[in-house]
Amino acid sequence: MSSKPRTTEAMRNLIRTVRTVLPIDLSPEAVCSDECRGCSIKLIEYIAMEMDNWEYRLDDGAIPTFRDLDKLARSCNKIYRALLKNGLLQEAETPDDLI
After folding, report:
1. How far is CA 56 from the centre of its chain?
2. With contact defined as beta carbons under 8 Å apart, do 22 and 98 qualify?
3. What is the pLDDT of residues 14-32, one digit of tens each?
4. pLDDT in tens, 43-54
């Protein structure tokens, strides 16, 4: 029987998944479109900053709680949905939920 990952591993897995799913590295010119429902650039910058912060904290020995995991996952899912509405992602690119 496999054991569940520790919260540290789960946070790293979440961050790895989000970095592969969301277009974190797009230039501002590629992100902005004619119609915008929420600023995609700011959303991408926010989530990239949150993930960088968590990676730094994990490397420094911090242990995230389930609440921390849930908060980041919810933010990622909301940003994912906003990027879908803005046409930056295709529905088939990712699973229903990031975690």
Report:
1. 16
2. no
3. 999 999 988 888 766 666 6
4. 888 999 999 999
Q: Which distant-in-sequence residues (6+ apart) come within 8 Å of 42 by Cβ?
A: none
3-state helix, strand, coil in the chain (%, to 5): 65, 0, 35
- Give CA–CA dist 99/95, Å, rounded: 9
Within 10 A of 83 (CB to CB), how many other CB atoms are there?
Answer: 22
Q: Is residue 79 within 8 Å of residue 22, measured between CB atoms?
A: yes
> Are the C-beta atoms of 73 and 98 separated by less than 8 Å?
yes
- Rounded to an integer, the average pLDDT of 56-61 is 95
Question: Do residues 76 and 22 make contact, with C-beta atoms less than 8 angstroms apart?
Answer: yes
| Ramachandran angles phi, psi of 21, nearest 5° | -90, -45
